[in-house]
Amino acid sequence: MDIDLSPADIAFQSDVRAFLAENAHKPGEDYAAWRLNWFKLAGEKGGWDIPKWPVEFGGPGWTPTQHYIWEKETASAQTPWDLPFGLSMLAPVLMNYGNAEQQQRFLPDIRERKVNWCQGYSEPNAGSDLANLKTKATLSEDGTHYTVTGTKIWTTLAHIADWIFCLTRTSDSGKKQEGITFLLIPMKQEGIEVKPIITLGGAHSVNMVHLTDVRVPVENRVGEEGKGWTYAKGLLAHERTGLAGISRSLVALENLRKQAATVQRGNGTLLDEPGYRAKLAELEVDLLAAEYTELRSLASAANGSEPGPESSILKLKGTEIQQRIQKLTVEAGGIYSAAWGQSSAGHKFARGGMTGYLSSRAYTIYGGASEVQKDVVAKNVLGLRKS
Ligand SMILES: Cc1cc2nc3c(=O)[nH]c(=O)nc-3n(C[C@H](O)[C@H](O)[C@H](O)COP(=O)(O)OP(=O)(O)OC[C@H]3O[C@@H](n4cnc5c(N)ncnc54)[C@H](O)[C@@H]3O)c2cc1C
Fold first, then answer.
1. Residue 341: per-residue pLDDT
2. CA of 375, closest atom in ligand 1
3. From the alpha carbon of 119, which atom of ligand 1 is closest?
4. 259-274: string of b/e by CB count within 10 Å (b at 16+)?
5. Which of 85, 121, 205, 345 could bond 117 through an S-S bridge, CB–CB 3.0 to 4.6 Å?
6. With b meaning 16 or more CB within 10 Å and e meaning fewer, what string describes 316-355?
7. Any atom of ligand 1 within 6 Å of the Cβ of 122
8. What's the pLDDT score for residue 366?
9. Burial (Cβ within 10 Å: 0-12, 13-18, ≥19) of residue 48
């Protein structure tokens, strides 16, 4: 595809830059209020708050180049934090498989960032082999509600979520993939218990969620009973594309170069060291290749296609690149990267370096482990068959 910017694209880029500069968070401004207002203002620009949503649901209908510009500009500007669970993962499922009532009920709140969603897929014995999930949903005799019992694990931000979209088992007969049903469950109700899991980097972002006899109205089922696997697979492709973080890595690599240039080594800086320079150069080449894969993915999305197996290439390469950036940041920060809290020793950029590095180990696990992405690429991109 052609990524030379046309005069119209350059005008769009200026418009985006002006919007981002004008509405950046100002020191002292209440963050929560600013964040919600930022999305409102972005919405008033014509769907800039939901760039990836289709036009019929309010999206801006951008060309691939416009998406590319937006990704790059927002990666380097100060934009509010946003969660993918409702906006980029559940919303496309509701648009494709939800009924009109569900779309009207859930999409506006997702758009306005009013509700937090979490993703209830993984279970203690169902991660890579997700179809092995056992959380049981039993339909009542009068067909009005399901009763759900089981345990979800690694549920990111379940402790602040209002709702969970959940894969449940409604049948044990036939292939494992066939008896799975996609349910939307409010978190704040009897029978749901959330227990924190503290990860390697010392953070509380993931949880164990126990569901015991949780009553879920049948209106909260997305699509048909037993077809949840089909919906879940589409959602995973959206998740993987989003996790690659290519634009953010481009900005991070640029920052890393600047940081390395401030680290004294002999008569020069770390940036003059051939070994470190070589690692940066390898990273840059891989990042460029990943950027072009992302552009191909954007181009097919703009033509109305769902993300395909290229989302696995992006997830695989994009997350490895993010880990390499974290590793090189720790290398640049040296022992000061190990300092926790408010230590003022060493370079400012080094603070929290080790925490970031340890947390980044999860990037190649969640959203589907790297080995699993390699399987998808081998089968669906390279056409290899199991021997
Ligand atoms: C920080 C974090 C956040 C997460 N957030 C969520 C969330 O919000 N919601 C949610 O539902 N889940 C979440 N997960 C779960 C995540 O999706 C799973 O951890 C992941 O799918 C791997 O499953 P597992 O942990 O059961 O490992 P396993 O599937 O047991 O895998 C163990 C190892 O075996 C390898 N392996 C497995 N199968 C194969 C195979 N067929 N071929 C080759 N190698 C294989 C894996 O690559 C891995 O190295 C999160 C995980 C983490 C770490």
1. 66
2. 42
3. 9
4. bbeebeeeeebbbeee
5. 85
6. bbbbbbbebbbbbbbbbbeebbebeeeeeebeebbbbbbb
7. yes
8. 92
9. buried
For residue 288, the model assigns a pLDDT of: 95
pLDDT classification of 347: cutoffs 50, 70, 90: confident
pLDDT higher than 70, residue 3? no
Q: Which of 83, 125, 128 to mutate to test the pocket of ligand 1 (most atoms within 8 A of CB)?
A: 128
Q: Is 85 in the pocket of ligand 1 (CB under 6 A)?
A: no
Task: Say whether pLDDT at 343 is over 70.
Answer: no
Q: 368 CB less than 6 Å from ligand 1?
A: yes
pLDDT surpassing 80 at residue 354: yes
> Does the pTM exceed 0.70?
yes
Alpha-carbon distance of 108 to 41, in angstroms, equals 15
Domains and CATH numbers, the chain: 7-82 (no CATH), 117-227 (2.40.110.10), 244-381 (1.20.140.10)
| Closest C-alpha residue for ligand 1 atom 25 | 127
